[in-house]
Amino acid sequence: MDRFFTLKRLGLSMVRNAVEGDYADGTGTKVETTALTVPAGNFKWQMPISQFAIDLNSNLQQNPGY
User: Fold this and answer.
1) pLDDT tier for residue 56 given thresholds of 50, 70 and 90
2) Would you say 43 and 66 are in contact if contact means Cβ atoms under 8 Å apart?
3) Which end of the chain is more exposed for a tag (fewer CB within 10 A), N or C?
């Protein structure tokens, strides 16, 4: 988790090996490529806000892209 925050703080892209785990691309199968990159400005650097939290506070807006 520390690496995530360091990459985000420094504005660096996240590169990870895509063949190390299942569901690497979200489909439930292993990905054919060797690495996945999430650019520093990509919306995936922010987690989605849960629907439960949005239901509790109508002032909250979902993070863009989710």
Assistant:
1) very high
2) yes
3) N
